[in-house]
C-alpha cells in the first residue's frame, strides 16, 4: 500500500480518515478476484468471527465456515462444551445447511422455540430419520401452541438427492416455487437443507475445510492458568487454530503463554494479541506467534479508550503492525472497528491478512442467545463486551462470592446492548455477501486479482470528515 502523491500522514488514522484511489485494472469482473488468505489458517475469504460470547458459537462457526470464513470459540466456554461444539462443526455437511428437526408428535410451541435458530427459518418434521413435512412460522400463526406438528405441517415435499448439482437444485426449486427443500440420501434419510440462495452461494464461495474435508474453526485461550494443558486439549479436539487472547497483549504473561503453547507441541497456527505497535508485534512473533491480532479499543462494545485513554486509531495500528509482521514472515489480523464493507477493504489494504468482526455479526440469527422482539416488533439479540461486568461474571463463576464481587468492581465494556437484526440481511451469510461484494469490487478498482496484489497495489489518500460524509448514500433522498 502507498499513500496518494507520497503524502505520509502526520497523525494516526481511522478507517473513516482514508479513501482508496482507483488504479489501472486488467481485472474484468469482481468474480475474477480470489479472496483466499495466505496466513496458513485455510480460510477462503478474509473474515474471522471474534471470540465474543454473544457472537461466536456452534451455529455461527458452522455457517461461516461453509462460506470460507472461520469463527473463534471464546476462552470462557467450558472445555466440555467446546468439545461438543468442535464435534458438531466437524460433523456438519460442508455444503448443505443443517436442518432443524422435530418429530411429528412435537408441538407448535416446540417448533416456535427452534425456528429462529437458523436463517432458513424452516423446520423439518422427521419420522424414522426421513422428512415427512416442513413447518414455517406462517404455519404456526394463530395456532394453539400445544397443537401437534402433524396437523400444521406442509406435506407436499420437494426433495433433492445428496450430491445434487447447485444449478440443478436451484432450477428445481425455482420451477416448483419452493424456497428450500430437504436433501436426502439414497436411502431417503435427511442430510440437510438446500435453499435457492444457498445453491447460489455454493457456487460463489468455497468452504474452509481441514485436511479431512471438515469445516474449520478456531478456539481462544487466555494467558492465565494451565495454558499448555488447555492448548494441548484443544488441539486434540481438532481445532484448526489457537488464539491466545488478552486485552493487553504486549506483556510478560502473554510471552510466557506463547512459550507454553509452543512447549505443548501444538501443530496449528497460533494467533496472539492484542497489540497496536510494531514493538508489540515483533515481541509476540519472536515469542512464537504466527499471526498477531491488532486492535485496542475500536470495538463497538469496548470502552477501553474512554476508560483508560489507551489505544490507537485502527487503520494506522494495522498498517504499522502489518509492516513489522511482514519483516518476520508473519501476518496480522485487524480486530475491531469495522462497520462497513469499506472498512474491511481498507484493513486488507493496510496489510491485514484477515479482519475480525464482532458486534456487526451479533445481530444475526446465527449468533448465540435468544431472539427478542421489542415493543415495535423489531427483532434483536443482546450483545456485550468481553471486559464488561456481564463477561467478568461468566469468567469468575467458579470464584467465591467475595472474589466475584471484588472483581466485578473493575470492569470495562458495555454489559448489554441491543443488536437489531437488519430485516434485509438478518443472517450472517447476508452480511458476508455484502462484505465480500464490497471487497471484491475494491480489488477490481485497485487492479488486483488476489489479496496479496491488493495490499501491494492499493493507493490510499487522506480525507476530512466532510469527505467521508460526502461518500455516504442518502437513501431517503435529499
- How helix-rich are the residues, as a percent range? 25-40%
The low-confidence parts are none
Query: How far apart are the termini?
Result: 36 Å
CATH topology of the largest domain: TIM Barrel
Please, how many domains? 2
Largest β-sheet summary:
8 strands, parallel, barrel
Overall shape: it is globular
Mean pLDDT: 93
What proportion strand? 15-25%
Helical/strand content category: alpha/beta
List the helices and strands and how they pair.
Blueprint: E1 2-3, E2 18-20, E3 47-49, H1 58-66, E4 70-73, H2 79-91, E5 100-102, H3 108-114, E6 122-127, E7 130-136, H4 137-140, E8 160-161, H5 166-176, E9 180-184, E10 190-195, H6 196-204, E11 218-221, H7 227-237, E12 241-245, H8 252-263, E13 270-275, H9 278-286, E14 291-294, H10 304-308, H11 314-327, E15 331-335, H12 341-349, E16 354-357, H13 359-362, E17 372-373, E18 379-383, H14 389-395, H15 401-408, E19 417-420, H16 428-446, H17 451-457, E20 459-462, H18 465-470
Parallel strand pairs: 1-20, 3-4, 3-16, 4-11, 5-6, 8-9, 11-12, 12-13, 13-14, 14-15, 15-16
Antiparallel strand pairs: 2-20, 6-7, 9-10, 17-18, 18-19
Helix pairs in contact: 1-2, 2-7, 5-6, 7-8, 9-11, 12-16
Structure description:
The mean pLDDT is 93. The chain has helices at 58-66, 79-91, 108-114, 137-140, 166-176, 196-204, 227-237, 252-263, 278-286, 304-308, 314-327, 341-349, 359-362, 389-395, 401-408, 428-446, 451-457, 465-470, and strands spanning 2-3, 18-20, 47-49, 70-73, 100-102, 122-127, 130-136, 160-161, 180-184, 190-195, 218-221, 241-245, 270-275, 291-294, 331-335, 354-357, 372-373, 379-383, 417-420, 459-462. It has 2 domains: 46-93 and 213-425, TIM Barrel; 100-204, CBS-domain, CATH 3.10.580. Helices cover 34% and strands 18% of the residues. The protein contains 18 helices and 20 strands. The chain has an 8-stranded parallel β-barrel with strand order 3-4-11-12-13-14-15-16, surrounded by 6 helices. The protein has a 3-stranded mixed beta sheet with strand order 1-20-2, with no helix packed on it. With 478 residues, the chain is an alpha/beta fold.
